[in-house]
Amino acid sequence: MGQIARHWYFNKRPKDVIEADTLVLREDPVPALEPGQILIRSLYMSLDATNRVWLSDWDTYMDPLPIGARMLGFILGEVAESQNPTFPKGSLVTGLGTWSDWIVTDAEGWAPFPRPEGIPLSDAFGILAVAGPTAYVGLLEIGKPKPGDTVVVTAAAGAVGALVGQIAKLHGCRVVGVAGSDDKCKWLRDDLGFDAVINYRKENLLDALKREAPNGIDVHFENVGGDQLDAGLTLMNEGGRVVICGLISTYNSSEPVPGPYMFRNVIMKRLTIQGFVILDYAAHFPEYHAKLIEWMRSGELKYRIHIEDGLENAVDALRMLYTGGNNGKLMVRIAPDAR
Amino acid sequence: MGQIARHWYFNKRPKDVIEADTLVLREDPVPALEPGQILIRSLYMSLDATNRVWLSDWDTYMDPLPIGARMLGFILGEVAESQNPTFPKGSLVTGLGTWSDWIVTDAEGWAPFPRPEGIPLSDAFGILAVAGPTAYVGLLEIGKPKPGDTVVVTAAAGAVGALVGQIAKLHGCRVVGVAGSDDKCKWLRDDLGFDAVINYRKENLLDALKREAPNGIDVHFENVGGDQLDAGLTLMNEGGRVVICGLISTYNSSEPVPGPYMFRNVIMKRLTIQGFVILDYAAHFPEYHAKLIEWMRSGELKYRIHIEDGLENAVDALRMLYTGGNNGKLMVRIAPDAR
Fold it and tell me: Which residues of B touch A260 (CB under 8 A)?
């Protein structure tokens, strides 16, 4: 068919931060479809902290991405051609795809994406693809907060953190958010209704947490790791739950990183520390989506979407996650939505 | 009544290991009993790794022991005089008492100790007071092993570890024990039926664990911490449970100790890391005791008791726990059993 696709390829393993030659953009012809296959025109790509993990040589929750492979990411696309009756031409699909403007796949691991009425497609994808289910599962199923509990969330202005705090508020908790700028803190407190916010760049986090969580912490939702996790562990109440959703402060390191210094509190405070990978919960997404869409429509769940334009800018966009440069859920628009 | 009691007093907070002047032995007259009180003649005292924690200025699971207070320990004694009908003269009692040969108490926190038929009193106390319930709760209620699971236990020849391994065997698991001498390893394998044993002083633990747990680790029962915990975390299977019973490698440190370097595996392998304090489970002890006594009588649960004689030798005995100098459950005999 003569169609050309652009793909980001994994070129060279980064030692620490993502470098200019870590990923390279190349063009390949799009092959003709075989029976069962579909051709996806990518519309949006979600950028998530965990993307960096896929570039490490750690033993992680997925098979390691080999050098020379196309970079992986969560994609929303439109079926441009179809040899698969489950995914008719013109329908929306979402899945773990590649950083490509055109994708040919047998559709394994892809799912139809219902276009929710009254919510822009970018917002629906940004919240429902990864961040929303992650916040929902991590807070409610793993953190198990009770009304009146104090919930602390780090990277609180991030895509997941902002949702975690609001869902915790909806469940009657006192919510303390930790973020890295006064602007982010203001947004969390004034627009999202967090009870307290701490700019960890401006004051000692442990001291600030003692002030803002005077009754101790019942659920600590960790996105960052390092000092922030340690501050939380120090102030956990007995029987508290520590949800390890992300450890972004450690993902750029190729050297071994020490675990939390207050690890002994897992005994002293009888804590449960539990990690999770949202991919494991895919079968339950429709249930989470129904609840999330309800809250999005009612305005109970507020969010910011940060869109960078163009597949060619994907690497620069990804780097923002590690510098706190994004404001809200970070996505790349690869092509305009046809509708 | 002119009776004199000897007590160990907390004299000076140790910086690292327990020092000669950390605890001092002094004599005090025994006061006359008030209504509701009992006078206990101490028979045995259990020495447990957690004793060292009580001497730290950490925020732990108990109120800190103030300098000048009598040192705390788990005691088995005989009621020598009673002004409390629940504890008649001549009956056995157990509880968290002080390092003393005579104890006057209102009996709060003390419980009658049934003398199990066919089991020496020292053994019954040594296994049932702390180590047995700790192994039972930690392995079965927190570790939740399934038949066929691989269970790794560190300090495997210690009081708790040896029981954990045997209870795991009784539940159909593959059991790998980590200990610090060939003698201990031989005992675990030949007498206790562990499937594999590793002397961590003689070979690289991670390499040895890869060999002895070729299918990965489902339940890691940690008594030590540090490198041993890291080796276990590295080889955990997805969804594995990491039971934090003790972190004895860290208790002698007054400086902050880094947590496990492989902490990221809590996400990558979707782990649950959970700590516990056996004191929280006191209400369920009769249920655990019934099961443990059954296994002790049938010979399914084997154990070694290491008795040091004399309250005056308690400090030297406690130090053994940190050098691996004891063989089996460590206790001090304070007075001979009258029967």
Answer: 259, 263
Helix, coil or strand: residue B320 = helix
Cβ contacts of residue A134 below 8 Å, gap of 6+?
A160, A245, A278
Per-state percent for chain B, helix, strand, coil, to nearest 5: 35, 30, 40
| ipTM score for this prediction | 0.90
> Are residues B263 and A245, on separate chains, in Cβ contact within 8 Å?
no
Distance from CA of A64 to the nearest CA of B (A): 12
Name which of B244, B256, B268 is nearest A60 (Cβ-Cβ): B268
Using a CB–CB cutoff of 8 Å, tell me whether B272 touches chain A. Answer: yes
Per-10-residue mean pLDDT of chain B, 339 residues long, equals 90 90 96 97 94 87 91 96 96 95 94 89 94 97 98 96 98 98 97 98 97 98 96 97 94 86 95 96 92 95 96 95 87 85
Question: What is the arithmetic mean of pLDDT over A226-239?
Answer: 97
A259-276 average pLDDT score: 96
Q: Do A261 and B264 touch (CB under 8 A)?
A: no
B60 touches A at CB < 8 Å: yes
CB of B164 closer than 8 Å to CB of B298: no
d(CA A185, CA A191): 10
- Could you tell me which of B242, B303, B283, B244 has the C-alpha nearest to residue B120? B303
Residue A338 has pLDDT above 80, yes or no: no
Angle, CA A18 vertex, CA A17 and CA A21 arms, to 5°: 135
Size of interface A-B (CB pairs under 8 A): 107
The reported pTM is: 0.92
Contacts of A276 in chain B (CB under 8 A): 267, 270
Tens-digit pLDDT profile for residues B209-268? 999 999 999 999 999 999 999 999 999 999 999 999 999 888 888 788 999 999 999 999
Cβ neighbours for A232, distance < 8 A, ≥ 6 positions apart: A152, A154, A209, A217, A220, A222, A242
Domains and CATH numbers, chain B: 4-114+304-333 (3.90.180.10), 126-279 (3.40.50.720)
What's the pLDDT band for A63 if we cut at 50, 70, 90? Answer: confident
